[in-house]
């Protein structure tokens, strides 16, 4: 893509936090945020959310603004255009260890 002066514009990847950035603290998505993402796409940029949320906590109205993917679960899940790129799960043994640690009477 080129500007009106013929300067080449390179595509960029934009990472956006969700809670308190893309959404307000009442989980509302401002129209200005949706418009900004549409403008980024019009300029051939990719837009991803980067969040502590799991995939299940990213509701349809968030996806509906046209995200290209997400880095979620504090980095344990990566998705690009509905394709899981990486997913790191904890083992049953790790889960038991965490639960036991949480149940310690300190």
TrEMBL record:
UniProt name for this protein: Cof-type HAD-IIB family hydrolase
Top-level taxon of origin: Bacteria
InterPro entries: HAD-like_sf, HAD-SF_hydro_IIB, HAD_sf
GO molecular function: hydrolase activity
Coiled coil: none
Keywords from the named record: Hydrolase
Pfam families: Hydrolase_3
Signal peptide extent: none
């Amino acid at each position: 893509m080129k500007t009106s002066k013929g300067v080449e514009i390179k595509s960029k990847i934009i990472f956006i936090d969700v809670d308190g950035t893309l959404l307000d603290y009442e989980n509302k998505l401002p129209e200005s945020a949706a418009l900004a993402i549409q403008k980024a796409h019009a300029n051939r940029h990719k837009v991803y959310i980067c969040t502590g949320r799991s995939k299940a906590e990213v509701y349809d109205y968030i996806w509906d603004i046209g995200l290209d993917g997400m880095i979620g679960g504090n980095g344990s899940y990566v998705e690009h255009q509905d394709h899981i790129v990486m997913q790191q799960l904890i083992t049953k043994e790790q889960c038991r260890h965490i639960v036991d640690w949480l149940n310690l009477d300190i």
